[in-house]
Amino acid sequence: MIPIKTCHDIDKMRKGGRVLAKIMAELSGMVSPGLTTAELDCKTEGLIRSFGVRSAFQGYRGYPAHICVSVNEEVVHGIPGPRRLREGDIVSIDIGIENSGYFLDMAETFPVGRIDTKRRKLIETAKAALEEAIKVFRVGNRLLDISRSVQAYVEARGFSVVRDFVGHGIGRELHEEPQIPNYVTKEDSPVLQAGMVFAIEPMINAGTWEVKVLQDGWTAVTKDKEPSAHFEHTVALTKEGPVVLTREE
Ligand code: MF3
Ligand code: CO
Questions:
Q1: Per-residue pLDDT averaged across 32-51, rounded?
Q2: pTM recorded for the entire structure
Q3: Site residues for ligand 1, CB cut-off 6 Å
Q4: Degrees (nearest 5) of the Cα angle 73, 232, 44?
Q5: Is 152 a domain residue?
């Protein structure tokens, strides 16, 4: 069963989403050569506290930090640490919070200083693939339409879509039904209804879609070491259409 939220639920989630977008904007301003990923985590901890919300990631299945920071060939779930960002890197920051019993989830990929054309196009494609997917999150469409939209957009630009990680429903839990693949599967697909809230999150690679998880048990990297980008928004479906909750305005 896919949980259906009331407008009261969605209103509460909108407030948490605004906070999360503000936190992301603060972090994005810090991204520069020489910064360690642990410093980003530390800053996040302070912001989370100052906004009076809670980290959804810390302690989740034993996850040790407030954000996932994935650099270059790291796809998702990079653990913050002593690694320093360098000019030319791309870095994705993924944050989840809980606010008054509701979860919000968001990710963005940023350039560190000047980056090469391949990385720039990868970031642009991942961001636009998310925007296109949000447009087909409409009452009467099927879940599969979201998956198809991402896959078609990304593959038409010569990039690949990660299979091993997917988007998800979100609300009273960080991960709710349904799973939202960024590629077309053969399973039959539910019709989208008002009150569904989804974390839509394309993860796309410059080379192969294949990934592996490192010895730390978390960090997923591309098998061919080519770079990867990730964007995520928490989006509510209303009768009027999709509403992106993880936005400042
Ligand atoms: N944003 C990711 C997701 O939606 C990260 C969760 S894993 C965690 O699944 F352990 F870092 F929390
Ligand atoms: Co997510």
A1: 98
A2: 0.98
A3: 57, 60-61, 63, 68, 77, 94, 96, 105, 199
A4: 80
A5: yes
